[in-house]
Structure formats: structure tokens, C-alpha cells
């Protein structure tokens, strides 16, 4: 059997392969999915990839399967580990952070100002896949980024370094890395914060994904995946962001919610309302991603139980203390019984509400000489037209639409959340990440396939 394109999603626990035919025609189709455990522990993720392909063959009832092209996304072995180092936390460090998260990175450290000895010690301990340096608006402060570049160039490891700060520092930064014999590790892009109140994160995001593809060695055997893949490889969360941006250009402002076993990710693509933008304290990117590392319905289940409270859970699930304890102790990654499903739905509801609240900005009241004034701070979601559910919980739980709708029930008050008119869309085929990577080379087909999965015209 021949497939046009196979897209592999190599996750930290599961590897999924999605098969597509009719690419670059008027009627592209999603034809099947296979999955298997990711084989990081076995020392080579190719094992899990082959087992997922074997599972796909089994679903087709064939013994032989070939494909014209293999693309991939990866979050195996912790995904893309990054550290970010800027000048002022609320300005250049924040801008660099937005660029990194939007590209699909997992941020392990963010610093502002000159790096301290304790910062360097922590940096060595993290051993990031990419280090990002920023600092200073164009033609502004130069000293901090140069100081930090000298310290990082002297480190005894070869992580790529991305400089996205003051344009005046380009030549000096190049010289620092040349003298350290590390010029090949350095990438220079446009400033993420070129002017006061102006974010410019997209050029850095693109290069982060390019670096990730070139240095795809974060999990055992991933260097061989680069040899197998005939097209693009990007971080899985970055692929979801690419899909969200593509969809926004077609149907309007949206946010994508992915409740996972370990984290809950939210991607929003919106410029917000004109009314809010006029009173916004600091700029926000059009496309923003937040990752809530304490809100996962499997790995971090106990965190959410604690947030909800045992008494509330017992009432919501109509169980006693002993039954609740049994639910917690016997918790499965994929629920089976009605009570287990109800338990996961309650966990997912909390993860969705809390993560949306953290992602959204809000109103602030400040007092000055002219009296009381109201300002806005953070991401404005009030112009969102669609909430898209992807990932296991938001595509497979029976009450997934109702769960996502809870985001709109809290829009009144001080938070800049979507209103009750917002429509809920579900990635029914669970292929959004695959379509994000597919869109890098086959944009029209990716959009058609996404709209089919979301069941919209």
C-alpha cells in the first residue's frame, strides 16, 4: 500500500503516525492512524516509530506500506529545552520568552540583567538545547547582552545560541563567539523588542524551529530520525501553533486548548479588541502560547485534585472518601469505567478553567494624581470567535464541548476571556499537530484537512 505523506508525532510517552493521501489535490484525505509507546527507554526512538507504523499496517490489513514523504514533530525526552536571557524582565526577557514558547520550546530558565554565578551553575545543570540571548531595544543599552554573551561563549558545551537583541551588538557578539571557536553555534536574528512597546517575535520563532530541526538529537535515536525524515521536523507544540495560525487566517480569531497528561497548553491567535488595546500597559504577541506544567490529568493529577479539594470532588462525583481514594490510587492514563471518565472530566474542567484564566490578561485599576484609571494588562481574548479542542482529553472525553465552553462562563469581571457567543470546535481526527508540520510544505491541503477534522465548511 502506498501513502502520500506520513507524519510522525514522537511524544514523550506515545508515538503516533498519521497517514494522508491526495496531498496537493482538491480532496486530500486522512486515511489512518497508528500508535505505539515511544521507545526512549530502549535507547532508540526509531523502535517506537516502526511499531507505530506496524500498528498502522495492521489497521489497514496490509503487510507492506510505503510512503512518498515522512514528516515529524517531536516532544520526546522533554521536547525542546530552552533558556532565555534578556535585559529587563517585563520587556526584552518577556519578548524572548514569547518567541521561545510560540516556537514550541519548553522554557527551563528565564533571567533578566547580567548573569550571576548561580545563573551559570543552573544553566550548566539544565544543559539546554538552545540558549536565547536578548537585551536592549535597537540603539539602546548594549553592555548586558555583551557581558552575557561572553559568559555563555566560555561554557563547556555546544548548545546553539540565538541572539535576538540590540542590532548594535551584532558585530561584537559575532567576534565573541569567533574568538571562542564557536561561531558555528551562533545564530543572529532581528531584535525581539526593537522599540518600546513593539514585539517582533516571529523571526526568532522561525529560526528556533530551524535550529531544532538541524539539532534534533534530544532523545536517543532522534539523530537517525533526521536521516529518515524527508521533510520538516518541528517541536510538537510549535506544530499546534502553526496549525492555529493557519486556521485563524481562514476563519478568524481563535484559541486552541490541549489538555495533556502532564501539561495543559493554550495557544491564542488574536490581536484583541481596539477598545482594550488603547488601554494596554505593555504589548502582547498576536500568537501566544502558555504551558501550565502543574495542570496535567495523569502525571499531575494530584495537583489538580488538591486545587479542587477532596470535599468538592466527592460532591461533584457523588462518591465517598474511600471511593475517591480508590479513584486516585487506580488512576489510568486512559479511563475505562464511567466513574473514571467522570473523574478525568472533572480534572480536565479544572485544568481548562485555570489555564485559560492564567493565559488571559485582565483589567487593573491604578491610582495617580489624576484619580482612578483602568488599564489592561496581558493577553486580550475578548475577540476570540472559536475555541478549538485538540489533544486526548479535548477530543475523546464524552463531554468535551461542555468542558471547553466553561472558558466562556467566566468572561465577566476583570479577566479578558472569550464571551458566551464563542463557538467550540473539536479536532475530531486528533491531527492538528500533524497538520501544523504538514502546513510548512503543503499549506492548502493542511487547511482543508483541518476543516474536515473540525467539521466546518
Strand portion:
15-25%
Biggest sheet: strand arrangement: 3-2-1-4-10
Q: What is the count of β-strands? A: 17
N-C termini distance: 30 Å
Number of helices: 17
Q: Any idea what the radius of gyration is? A: 23 Å
CATH class of the largest domain: Alpha Beta
Q: For the residues shown, what is the average pLDDT? A: 92
The CATH topology of the largest domain: Nucleotidyltransferase, domain 5
Q: Percent range for helical residues?
A: 25-40%
Task: Spell out the blueprint of helices and strands.
Blueprint: E1 2-10, E2 14-21, E3 29-37, H1 45-60, E4 66-74, E5 80-86, H2 89-102, E6 105-112, H3 117-126, E7 130-133, H4 143-153, E8 161-163, H5 170-179, E9 186-188, H6 202-214, H7 222-228, E10 233-235, H8 236-251, E11 254-259, E12 264-269, H9 274-277, E13 287-292, H10 301-308, H11 310-317, H12 321-329, H13 338-359, E14 362-368, E15 371-377, E16 386-390, H14 391-396, H15 400-405, E17 423-426, H16 432-438, H17 443-453
Parallel strand pairs: 1-4, 4-10, 5-6, 5-7, 7-8, 8-9, 11-16, 16-17
Antiparallel strand pairs: 1-2, 2-3, 11-12, 12-13, 14-15
Helix pairs in contact: 2-6, 4-5, 8-16, 8-17, 16-17
